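The methods section describes the discrete structure representation at length, but only in general terms. The central task, working out the structure tokens from the amino acid sequence alone, is never made concrete. Nothing conveys this as quickly as seeing an actual entry. For illustration, here is how one protein appears when written out as sequence plus structure tokens:
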Amino acid sequence: MCSHKRGVRHFAVTLLPALSTAALATSVCFISAAAHAQTSLPGIVVEGKSQPVRRKAATATKATPQSAPAQTPSDAVPSDSDATQRAGNLTVPTTEEAQRALALVPGSVVVVPDTAYRNTTPASTIKDVLDYVPGVFVQPKWGDDSRLSIRGSGLSRNFHLRGIQLYMDGIPISTADGFGDFQELDPTAYRYVEVYKGPNALRFGAASLGGAINFVTPNGRDADLFGASVDFGSFGFKRLQASSGGAQGPADVFITGSWQEQDGFREHSSGESKRLSTNLGYRLSEDLETRFYLNANEVRQRIPGSLTKDAALQNPESAAPFNVLNDWQRNIDTLRFANKTSWRVAPGTLVEVGAFGVDRHLMHPIFQWLDYHYDDYGTFGRLLDERTIGGFKNRLLVGVNLHNGSVDADQYVNTGGQKGALLSSSKNDSRNFTAYIENSFYVLRQLAIVTGTQYLDASRRLTDKFLGDGNQSGQNSFDAWSPKAGLLWEVDRNWQVYANVARSAEVPSFGENSFSAASAFDAELQTATTLEIGTRGRRPDYTWDLALYRANIDNELLCTAPFPVADFCVVRNANKTIHQGIEAAFGASVLKSMFVGGERPDRLWLNVAYTFSDFRFDDDPLFGNNEIPGAPRHYLRAELLYRHPAGFYAGPNVEWVPEAYFVDSANTLDTEAYAIWGMKAGWDGRKGLSVYVEGRNLSDGRYIASTGITNVANPAVTNLFEPGTGRAVFAGVKVAW
């Protein structure tokens, strides 16, 4: 990478706090000048809906309890809605519009609004966001890092992320070869989060085993003029966050920044992060809008490392001695620019085009000192067309994606956290082109036949620049078709039944075999065929979301080969594997009108998310029908929350893993079953003020939160276990106007 680009990165990241402050001040001045001006353009009206108001007013009129499952469908009949109509912005659907759009998918998809977690939890990690989404296994490791898997995706990867494609505002944020990092995500910055499980992510052209997650930021037309929050808690946790948004005439702007610091529950787990997100939209005409995005992150995090099982349960606060000796860290600087333009070319027809570029620097002293410079870029285009054909409602989605990237990967000797001699140097190039189409044809007013396919053309090339140990260069190319077919039956306005069968294809990343000389070009394409049936719905006093699925996988990327170091394995393609399970979410008013009656009574609301996972080898020559390690068979999150219409809430919650799960493919070493519980209480005011206090793991139980996996474990020396956090208490105050 040229020195000029490194200078730009250094300037942007080192001045991030000043940039956040200046940008917030500029935003406030811009919005204050417009305080008496029109906050939305005239003439942009969706039939049957009023113009959007400030978010705090919208929250005050929300009828659904905030503790209700976030994945319930919209009250609108999907077949009667027009997804090309947008109430406030053409480029950014509102939460309700996103819920209606996802209700058109014949598969398990979820919208998690910020009201489900932001005002009632520390909202410090992705676990706070996705904790009550069944089928999603997300557990904290240390700092901001978590382990995330959807339907058993990427179980061989206990660091970074593979098997799930990450988006921000519909624009990719994962690396071109398929990696992702949670440290670049700020849960306080999003209006809502969309979760597309498995092949149901075809809306973005994604077709991986785990699916996709899209983090959507607010915009100037639905944001508060000013908002701020202060959070603090156990283990030195503290965070400051501020945001501002508004609109004047055809322009709107939103900006948010946060600073977070913590000492960490474990030794050698302190960290600090600064994050900035902003977007600027401009309405060129009633039917044409463009929006620019800027994201910047500076993350500094020490890594305590994994422990043996005995150490994790007997001394969970400890760090791996080797990590302390060599000062293991993961430090990331990111600068991301993007644009998305939406054009309603005709009634019922919406076109979206955009481009993005990401400059990322990973400074990562671990077993070696990794110095990686990422340059990712791409473009995309999508067309959504809704019309009547021969008297039948029809929806057509067509799109193309181009996502390319290069990584300058240098690895040095790690000497006490400092760079030593150069050990390897390479340039890793990834090229990805996808084209996709999905069509929903309503043979009856409430019954749609959904068909679609994705075409993937990808290549991976490694150019070895350090030839002292031989030339490790290589390349590979991949192409695949991933068809999909499904049915969506809208039984009534608030009840849907669906079924689908879909194929997915996943290209191996460069990091699959980073602990050996092998790289991505040594592995084959991972493919799967997934069958799924389910139902979702809402009634005045209860909600439900149930999905059953089975994925038959060929060439799953798993730990199947030994490696000289006991803690690691070499990731290769397994032969055949099976992932199947049940995902169930249920919410109900156990009691209501206990102290307050009328149209807005008080409620005692039960919220349950349960996941059953059965992942196993299928007559594998090495491991037979063993269980695939890395995820519990049963995982339950439940909450019983009393809510008063004045805003007060309080109640207990529980996290339960009733059975241990294996950490090696040979099924010789497992974790321990556990149950932990907590309490939270607070007041979510109607005038922009909220306070909360939350206690987690109040019994101070010792448990295994997540693990790495290997092929055959040695209990005495295998460091794979990430201990869960001990008793912790958090509190916070949020204001907005």
